[in-house]
Write a structure and sequence with these properties.
Low-confidence stretches: none
Strand content: 25-35%
Radius of gyration: 19 Å
Length: 273
């Protein structure tokens, strides 16, 4: 595999990033993962807009959207990715050994790889640690994923494939790399961005396609729902079968099926919605 690092294509195992890179040292970075369908990257505009928002939140400079689009296409072609994913990562660049950012400028990396399909359904577990919806990084897609690593490991120890966070006030927030939708009495609901959840690209598309309501929901609503599903770039729409070991009544339920079918139809008709 080959990756693009600061203007040059390198072999995946070739040293290309400084040992003093601030992304490595402190998690000072942002990223986007984009889905590749038959060699074409999906929803590039939306992903690059969110990358710019995240970078702005950290004060990181980005190349132009046109430049990044061209690099993304180059990397996908160089790796002959048919169905897979491509990731754009931008870090604070070489920096001192501390929280201060150096003056060298950002590091930009674009890498691509095949994507194994997700299971048809998944189990989730609500973790005991809250998301901080008032934190400096709330709503930004950053490389500071230590909290997610711990939460996902905790969930997997309990037989789940994704961890779910409440926020500080006990409302449903998000997964480690996914957004959450619940179906209750025929209504499709998802936490609002004010809950602290990431503004997922797939989440936004599903809201637009289905008219799902964005409402604050107590985290316990998840295990009491008629049906529920996760959304993410690589999962697309993935039904939730169990919550904390308890089965939901419908997997997939009618709202989940409708959302999945609508999303599949969108991909078929518009690769950059």
């Amino acid at each position: 595999m080959r990756a693009w690092v600061d203007g040059r294509m390198v072999d995946a195992d070739e040293p290309a990033v400084s040992a003093f890179d601030h992304g490595l040292l402190t998690g000072d970075g942002v990223f986007e993962t984009l889905k590749v369908y038959d060699g074409t990257v999906f929803a590039v505009r939306r992903h690059l807009e969110r990358l710019a928002q995240s970078a702005g939140g950290l004060g990181l400079a980005l190349g132009s959207a046109d430049e990044l689009r061209a690099v993304i296409d180059e990397v996908v072609a160089a790796n002959a990715v048919g169905d897979g994913r491509v990731r754009v990562t931008v870090t604070g660049g070489p920096s001192p050994l501390g929280s201060d950012r150096g003056a060298a400028g950002p590091t930009t990396i674009v890498a691509a790889a095949p994507q194994a399909p997700w299971p048809d359904t998944t189990a989730v577990a609500v973790v005991p640690w809250p998301r901080n919806e008032r934190g400096a990084l709330a709503g930004l897609k950053t490389t500071s994923y230590g909290e997610n690593v711990v939460a996902l490991a905790w969930a997997k120890e309990r037989g789940a494939g994704e961890a779910i966070f409440a926020n500080l006030v006990g409302n449903l927030c998000e997964g480690t790399g996914s957004n959450v939708f619940v179906g209750i009495a025929g209504r499709l609901l998802t936490p609002p961005l004010s809950s602290g959840c990431l503004a997922g690209v797939t989440r936004a598309l599903v809201v637009e396609l289905t008219g799902a309501a964005e409402e604050d929901l107590p985290v316990d609503v998840l295990q009491d729902a008629d049906e529920a599903f996760l959304t993410s770039t690589t999962r697309e729409v993935q039904p939730i079968a169990t919550v904390n070991g308890m089965s939901l009544p419908d997997t997939p339920g009618p709202l989940t099926q409708a959302a999945a079918e609508s999303f599949t139809a969108l991909v078929a008709r518009d690769m950059d919605p």
